[in-house]
Design goal:
The chain has two domains: 20-119 and 227-274, D-Maltodextrin-Binding Protein, domain 2 (3-Layer(aba) Sandwich), CATH 3.40.190; 122-225 and 292-317, 3-Layer(aba) Sandwich (D-Maltodextrin-Binding Protein, domain 2). The chain contains twelve helices and eleven strands. It has helices at residues 2-21, 42-58, 75-84, 95-103, 151-159, 166-169, 181-189, 200-205, 238-248, 261-267, 276-292, 294-317, and strands at 28-35, 62-69, 90-93, 109-116, 122-130, 144-147, 172-175, 195-199, 216-226, 228-233, 270-272. The longest helix has 24 residues, at 294-317.
Length: 318
Amino acid sequence: MKKIITTALLVMAIFATATYAQEEHEKYIVGLPMPAGMEKSSIAGLLKDIVAYVGELLGEDTEAKVLVYEYGTDVAKFVEEKMESGEVDVSYLLGNEYAAYLDSGKNNLTPFFTLSMSGQSIMPTCLFAAKGKYKSVEDLRGLRWGGVYTQPTRYLLYKAGIDEPLDKFFSEVKFVSDMPVTGQIEGFDNGDYDVFNTYDVTLRVAGYMNKKDISFEPVSCVDYNYSWIFLYRDGLDEKVMEEFRDLMIGADKDKRFAKFHFAFKMIQGRFGPIDYDELDKVVDIYKLGKKHGWDKEEKKYFKEQSKMKAGHKKSGDS
């Protein structure tokens, strides 16, 4: 009899543990990882409002939490740690960041929908220079470069048949934030650098590609990254996450989201299902960069930028 009772208690304990694994949630926290500067953007405010409204429709308490990071941060690791610790329940990664997450061997996050902007899930990266002066990437040799990450330009060079680090191909490599992109363009117009790199979508959302009086044009563009992929962490109620996904997909045309439709239209934003064929292409680009050591070059570049930043801060304090 004692053995039967012990067995029954053990079964009940296992059942209780399994039930607890799908957590009872008082509040779902949606993490919004953003590079320093972007947290003040209109897209940050829009996402916060959408998260709160989705909670109302789901009958759940939801809250958005902005996760600010500095450029050069391992975003995949940064977001995964926030989710694994339970600080946030849902978040997102860009395609190349998601590829880095997959490469880490972790398997605790589930992708369930995506947010595209400017009508495109795949984001071309471009090299921009003065209008009418340059016809090819090779024509940019020896010029001064301004941008954030080096790997997108490295891929642009690779696609043009050039296998050289940025500091060998360009005469100067300068970190220039594109958050907001107006600052990057002002630097270009002021002559701080001759060529700059950013995503095509960044300029489109900001309205620059519709202006006739801009001083620059794309010299080369290639498909490079996948737009934001939303993920949820292990242990959440699968039914709630399915309802969350179903609400978001098609929200740009859903009458219940009418108050957000103007904002969707402004950025040509759309929540939708993930196109895994397109995402696989981005994963392949990530693998190519790792194979050729572009990731190590970029880490070195950010270390140098950190030293320069620290040096400027010290000289300013003295």
